[in-house]
């Protein structure tokens, strides 16, 4: 199987392998090779590449060196356990103890430190990274040619490329920066996941501005506990990774981070925290957007509009305005650019087929996000609120019962269903969600329905909708597939919801 990998720059000056060996402090290989690219994935190798054969949790990249050599790799970087397999190809091999920890700096060298000329704004937090990145990009666009890197897509100017993950691996990221540089991009808004920080994906980057939105329990399959999760996020707020932190003072972990960060920080609050440097005041939450005044430390007063509904999007918008002000943009110009963002794919995205009620698709797939979005929609719903929701298989199991409970407590109809069960039995996942729903006292919970089939669940919610109601289909947002037993079948909530509505409209 081949995989094209992300785009690569056209112009790269070759770096002698010996120079890279020197940078690593590794033994110099006897062969002279000239390196013009680097990848950690054998399927994405291009002629002239250094192939980084990494030890992983499941596999070892050294098992794929033959493929890498066949595709034109001219040298291999690996750890001691991969050295013998790599040498068997006859290619020169660089051996270091932890190649994953070194490949970011090598990629930066090979592509000529492409991030240095870019204004880089990195966004982290459990919820709101994608949304804030789009808003930051909208503000940046007012004065600069922009790029965007995140969960939904990567954008180089107007070109859009589907993302493999939230934060690309370091080899891909540096190549992407080099492409951006070639195409005249001046500023980039980028999501930085905790996985990325732990796995060295942003090694070789120093963000001009690092934004922290919030932290709530999530990814407990990857982080041992909340402390470990916090520590991962906190790495972004050190001089090695950023120059200035923009931190949410409404979040308890944000307040801790503001105290413990080793870079200068400015704080913001959408909830009136008295010590915050920047605050949102006069907030008017409308059905599909919100307006407010951003008040700055020097008495600045900026008229801002969140182009998305819900109080949490006031916080995301405020984060974006403050980040852009901290980056030196005129905050009013930045806020106007943010207000003009047409929406964020799969984030409170409206589906309109002429029905007399509101129908939205949202990426909420974590307990906090589900609670926030249901509370936000409750405020703008005159009638009843119906939610369709599932939990992924082979991922954090601890959130299943709380998500079932949140859906039951905060909606009138909770239709529990499948959401990428992967290798797990969908009914077993549903049983845990149902236990959570059942833990809510009867007088505090709405109707709870179970449908293993997601399309049937969406139809059931739509079937209950009356004028003035809201139907929320949560979990998948922009995603376009459903992974059942390792087979990904096409499934787009927006399309299935539209078709279900059209059926009832007759
Ligand atoms: C926990 C985690 O993030 N693991 C990532 C890590 O896996 P790993 O080191 O265990 O690698 P492995 O699968 O054992 O393979 C070992 C090596 O062999 C290589 N290989 C493998 C097969 C092959 O044919 N050729 C080949 O070269 C792989 O590229 C890898 O370098 O390195 C792999 C190579 O890049 C990633 O694909 C993999 O991401 C997994 C699939 C993943 O799903 N990660 C998610 C959880 C993630 O990173 N999520 C965050 C967002 C979280 C959020 O905020 O919601 C993200 O930033 O996307
Ligand atoms: N600041 C916020 N606080 C709480 N919930 C939020 C916030 N921003 C967005 N959400 C909710 O979380 C969902 C995901 O938002 P978004 O994609 O912007 O976050 P993310 O951090 O990129 O998520 P992920 O890590 O899952 O990709 C939204 O669809 C919305 O329901």
Automatic annotation (TrEMBL):
ATP binds at residues 125-131. Residues 123-323 form the Mur ligase central domain. The keyword Lyase does not apply. It catalyses: UDP-N-acetyl-alpha-D-muramoyl-L-alanyl-D-glutamate + meso-2,6-diaminopimelate + ATP = UDP-N-acetyl-alpha-D-muramoyl-L-alanyl-gamma-D-glutamyl-meso-2,6-diaminopimelate + ADP + phosphate + H(+). GO terms for cellular component: cytoplasm. GO terms for molecular function: ATP binding; magnesium ion binding; UDP-N-acetylmuramoylalanyl-D-glutamate-2,6-diaminopimelate ligase activity. UDP-N-acetyl-alpha-D-muramoyl-L-alanyl-D-glutamate binds at residues 42, 166-167, 193, 201. Residues 34-109 form the Mur ligase N-terminal catalytic domain. InterPro entries: Mur-like_cat_sf, Mur_ligase_C, Mur_ligase_C_dom_sf, Mur_ligase_cen, Mur_ligase_N, MurE/MurF_N, UDP-N-AcMur-Glu-dNH2Pim_ligase. It is an enzyme of class 6 (ligase). It is found in: Cytoplasm. The keyword Repeat does not apply. A motif (Meso-diaminopimelate recognition motif) lies at residues 419-422. Meso-2,6-diaminopimelate binds at residues 395, 419-422, 475, 479. It comes from the Bacteria. NCBIfam families: murE (TIGR01085), PRK00139.1-2 (NF001124), PRK00139.1-4 (NF001126). This is UDP-N-acetylmuramoyl-L-alanyl-D-glutamate--2,6-diaminopimelate ligase. The lineage of its organism: Bacteria, Bacillati, Actinomycetota, Actinomycetes, Kitasatosporales.
């Amino acid at each position: 199987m081949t995989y094209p990998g992300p785009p690569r720059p056209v112009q790269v000056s070759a770096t002698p392998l010996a120079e890279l060996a020197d940078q690593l402090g590794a033994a110099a290989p006897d062969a002279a090779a000239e390196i013009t690219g680097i990848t950690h994935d054998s399927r994405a190798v291009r002629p002239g590449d250094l192939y980084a054969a990494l030890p992983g949790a499941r596999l070892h990249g050294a098992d794929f060196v033959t493929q890498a050599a066949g595709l034109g790799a001219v040298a291999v970087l690996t750890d001691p356990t991969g050295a013998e397999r790599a040498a068997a190809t006859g290619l020169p091999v660089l051996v270091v103890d932890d190649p994953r920890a070194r490949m970011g700096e090598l990629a930066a060298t090979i592509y000529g430190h492409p991030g240095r000329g870019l204004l880089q704004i990195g966004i982290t937090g459990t919820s709101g990274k994608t949304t804030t990145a789009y808003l930051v990009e909208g503000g940046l666009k007012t004065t600069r040619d922009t790029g965007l890197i995140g969960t939904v897509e990567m954008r180089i100017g107007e070109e859009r490329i589907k993302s493999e993950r939230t934060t690309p691996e370091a080899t891909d990221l540096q190549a992407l920066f080099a492409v951006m540089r070639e195409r005249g991009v001046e500023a980039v808004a980028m999501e930085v996941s905790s996985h990325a920080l732990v796995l060295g994906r942003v090694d070789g980057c120093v963000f001009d501005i690092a934004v922290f939105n919030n932290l709530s329990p999530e990814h407990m399959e990857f982080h041992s506990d909340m402390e470990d999760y916090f520590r991962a996020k906190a790495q972004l707020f050190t001089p090695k990774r950023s120059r200035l932190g923009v931190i949410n003072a409404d979040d308890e972990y944000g307040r801790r981070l503001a105290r413990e960060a080793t870079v200068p920080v400015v704080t913001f609050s959408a909830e009136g925290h008295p010590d915050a440097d920047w605050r949102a005041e006069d907030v008017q939450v409308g059905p599909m957007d919100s307006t407010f005044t951003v008040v700055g430390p020097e008495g600045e007063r900026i008229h801002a509009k969140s182009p998305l509904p819900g109080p949490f999007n006031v916080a995301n918008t405020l984060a974006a305005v403050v980040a852009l002000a901290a980056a030196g943009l005129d905050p009013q110009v930045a806020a106007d650019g943010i207000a003009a963002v047409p929406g964020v794919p799969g984030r409170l995205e409206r589906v309109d087929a002429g029905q007399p009620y509101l129908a939205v698709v949202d990426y909420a797939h974590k307990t906090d996000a589900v609670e926030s979005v249901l509370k936000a929609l409750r405020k703008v719903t005159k009638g009843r609120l119906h939610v369709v929701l599932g939990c992924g298989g082979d991922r954090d199991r601890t959130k299943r019962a709380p998500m079932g409970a949140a859906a039951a407590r905060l909606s009138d109809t909770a239709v529990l269903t499948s959401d990428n069960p992967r290798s797990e039995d969908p009914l077993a996942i549903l049983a845990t969600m149902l236990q959570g729903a059942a833990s809510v006292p009867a007088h505090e919970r709405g109707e709870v329905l179970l449908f293993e089939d997601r399309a049937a669940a969406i139809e059931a919610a739509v079937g209950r909708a009356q004028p003035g109601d809201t139907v929320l289909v949560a979990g998948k947002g922009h995603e376009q597939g459903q992974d059942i037993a390792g087979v990904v079948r096409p499934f787009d909530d927006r399309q299935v919801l539209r078709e279900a509505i059209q059926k009832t409209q007759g």
